Amino acid sequence: MAATWHDIAARKQRERADRIPKKWRLPNERFQDNDSVLDVPRRCGLLSKQDIRITESYDASTLVAELAAGRLSSLDVVTAFCKRAAIAQQVVNCLTEIFFEDAIARAKHCDQYLREKGKPIGPLHGLPISIKDSFKVKGYDASVGVAGFCFKPAAANSALVDLLLEAGAVLYCKTNVPLTMMALDSHNNVFGRTLNATNMKLTAGGSSGGEGALIAMRGSPLGIGTDVGGSIRIPAMCNGLVGVKPSHGRLPYVGQEGGAPPGSSKLGIESTAGPIARNAKDCEMLLRVIGDSQPYMYDPDVLPQTWAQQTSLQTSLPSSRVQQPLLVGIARTDGHVAPLPPIQRLLDDVSRCLRSPTLPSWEAIRVVDVDISSFGPQILKVFNGIMSIDGANTWFNHTASTGEPMSPWLQTRLKRRPAKPLDEVRSLQSQRTELQTRFQAIWHERGGYWQTPADKTTAGGRMLDVIICPAAPHPVPPIDRWNTTNYTSAFNLLDYPAGVLPVRTFDSADLEGSVPNEAPLNGWDTINRGLWNDVDRRLYVGSPLSVQIVAPRLMERKLVEIMVMLEQALSPLKTLRASASKL
């Protein structure tokens, strides 16, 4: 008799639990009764003072420097993060595959190499990095939460895994995803649901939700997720982190477990891999290291460009001051779902902060308002059409083999349908190309998308450097209540690099405001309004509020360099409400 999904899940969860050393196990405590569990690693008594210092006092960029100089040992750093990841797993259920023993052995090798050779293995020497479950690591499963994929260890590494190892990184765990990796809440029947460490009543996001929760708990200094509709940016938003989705062709992607037959991505929208971290500088560091590690030798789709050859933010040395102000466009709505009052207020805060002559950003940044609302409805229609070309039959076939049901969020959203015929696929891709072509006018101001004549005069005929827009039309929602992905998936369809930047937290003043009296724009807009009118809004207090930063295609370097600047420019909003009276 074939094993059922219940049997497989139970066996898989026992395997995962057994890979956590007994001395790192927490006493039975009902963490789900707490709104926030961020302090559990600190107060549980399992971490030494050195463990706490390593996991809380350094970011990934600083750790790399300290490890290369020998001021920190990889063994100490890797052990500290393994312990903290073990704690995080027991609290928020964020891990899938655990290979702490392999990681500690590799950390010892890194330290020995540095002692004997007098130089680091590579630019990521000894740095622990966590990765999403879809990445293949030889000898371990890449089940992506599908029972039928369990206990079938990978025979080879994914391309990016090989690159990271050759750069000196230490991989120590893989992180949880939703079933099908098309859901916005990381739940599957094999590993269960990942929880949000900031507020366990809110979603941790998906599909790289395990990465987001782990990094929020400081169980990883740097993680790598994947994104085909928002799967890096949404968990970054939910967990108050920075996440970057590159354009296709910038980072190696081959060798992933995506659940689809080989070659399927060439008919649809290419997923991309990218970093999730606690600050923009760490994301920039990882992209720079990958860019300088000949990534095109690992994946034929990757462009043969070094970091120096990629489009950069022009600076005048040695002051690193921009030669001319950045030109930043602010787009407040996609025209499909209207942002709720706190998101509108957040964009107002950001706009006022960047425009204020009392702040340091005044001389370095110029802001214009940009209208992209005519694109939203058509982008969503084309994106959804392309993402459903096989009628979800592949995923239903995978789950049918063990009798596995769909996750709750998917049960009313994912249905078997006939696969789309070739002519319909061709038509959808043609519409995509048309949208990409039309959107080019946004960057150059052709077609009246910049909202005032004064904006054009101020810009002096220049091209926008980045666009700031919402990451979602709502705050971090309760579990299984995520609405539309259009604010993120639009930039997958257009193939623009995009990142999420946390700005401040939701405070009591954000509870004010109401939705318009006019009829909703559509069914999605109705659902979105329910996240304001049909919930206790106090649930959102203390949750992170983030914006999305978007750059033209393949301008990842410019994007992350500007994100570093904007992170600093918007920092006053972490302690002040950007109101007219204060700015």
UniProtKB/TrEMBL annotation:
Enzyme class: hydrolase
Keyword Hydrolase: yes
EC numbers for this chain: 3.5.1.4
Pfam family, one: Amidase
Protein name as catalogued: amidase
GO-annotated molecular function: amidase activity
Active site: K132 (charge relay system), S207 (charge relay system), S231 (acyl-ester intermediate)
Catalysis: reaction(s): a monocarboxylic acid amide + H2O = a monocarboxylate + NH4(+)
Domain of life: Eukaryota
Keywords recorded for this protein, A-Z: Hydrolase
Keyword Hydrolase: yes
Gene3D superfamilies in UniProt: Amidase signature (AS) domain
Span of domain Amidase: 76-559
Family of this protein: Belongs to the amidase family.
UniProt-annotated binding residues for substrate: M181, S207, V228, G229, G230, S231
InterPro entries linked to this entry: Amidase_CS, Amidase_dom, AS_sf
